[in-house]
Every structure is written in C-alpha cells, then in structure tokens.
Amino acid sequence: MVGDTRRHELTDLEWELLAPLIPRATTGRPRVSDRQVINGMVHKIRTGISWRDLPDRYGSWKTVCTRFRRYALDGVFAQALQQIPAHADAAGDTDWLVQIDSTIVRAHQNAAPHRPKKGDPPAGRPRRSRPRPNPGRTDHQNPPCL
After folding, report:
1. Do 66 and 41 form a contact (C-beta atoms < 8 A)?
2. What does pTM read for this prediction?
3. Fewer C-beta within 10 Å: the chain N or C terminus?
4. pLDDT tens digits for 96-126?
5. Helix 34-47 / helix 61-74 crossing angle, nearest 10 deg
6. Cα(22)–Cα(7) distance, rounded to whole angstroms?
7. What is the DSSP letter of 100?
8. pLDDT, tens digit (0-9, with 9 covering 90-100), for 74-91
9. d(C-alpha 110, C-alpha 6), whole Å
C-alpha cells in the first residue's frame, strides 16, 4: 500500500507505530490483513457511517466490527493511546504547547437556571391556580348501559 493511502486510512508511518501493538492470531484460519481491518475501523470512526455501510475494500463489516469490539475490550486501543505518544515524546517528536486562558465572564444572577421550588409542577406544564371541578358523573354512579 505504499503511496496508495486513501483519505481515511493510516499512513505507512502511522501503521509502523501501531502494527506492533496489534495482537497476532496464533491458531485458526488465516485472518484478513490487520492493516486492512484497522483502516476499516479508522474509516468508520472518521466518517461516522454504520458498520454495515463500510466499503468492501476493508473486507466484511462483521470482521471489522468484531475485531474493533475485541480490541476495545482487550485494551488494545488504550495501550496504543499510552505507548504511541510516549514513544513520540521519547524521540523528541512531540512539540508541547500549552495554552491557558484566564478569561472570566461574569453572568447576571438572572442568567442562572431556574431551580423549581417545592410544590412547583414539572417543567412544561402550566400551573393551575385551583383544581377544576370534574363535570359529569363519576364511574360508580349510574354506569352506562351496554
């Protein structure tokens, strides 16, 4: 895949950093290429499509979805998010830029959300001043004939 990287796929450098962290299958039938499956995961996350709409170039959507779930449960992604930045920091490839904003915006007291008082009706329903009389009879008085 050298030079054939698509928009929502890992570059060769990104893959070199991530590949050692992907678990290898030891038994069973031959697997779909790890890079192909990871690129499918990246494509799904970056575009927001559903698993079933994953393009065919990434293999079966079920395979990509199953491995995504397995890697998430096994902590593969968490490990990658810890080790890759640490590797880049150790190599001096990280440019730490920290920006702190100390702007204070004061709001008027009427801008605070309304806290209902005890006995207030739930939001969205008007408050009645007094209960309305129920016109007509109650169910136990002269039930209608059927």
Report:
1. no
2. 0.57
3. C
4. 666 667 677 777 777 767 677 777 666 666 6
5. 90
6. 22
7. -
8. 999 898 888 887 777 777
9. 52
